[in-house]
Target: Transposase
Amino acid sequence: MFIVPKKFDQDAKDRVVGLIDDRVLAEGLTISIACQVVAPKLGVSWHSGRQWGQQSRRSGGV
Model:
C-alpha cells in the first residue's frame, strides 16, 4: 500500500509553527517536545512541524 503525502498550504504551516512557538514560550518546552505535543493534534507529523519551524526561523518568519 502506498500512502500519498498530504499537502499543506502556507497558512496551515504558519498556524502549526505559531502554536508550537506559543507552547515553547508559555510552558518552557523544548521545540522538539512542543512539536510532539502540538503537531499530531493538528494532523501533522511532529517531524514536519519541526521542519516548518526551522524553515520559518531561517527565513526570518515566526
Summary: Residues 2 and 31 are 30 Å apart (CA to CA). The chain has one domain: 10-58. Helices lie at 10-27, 31-38, 46-58.
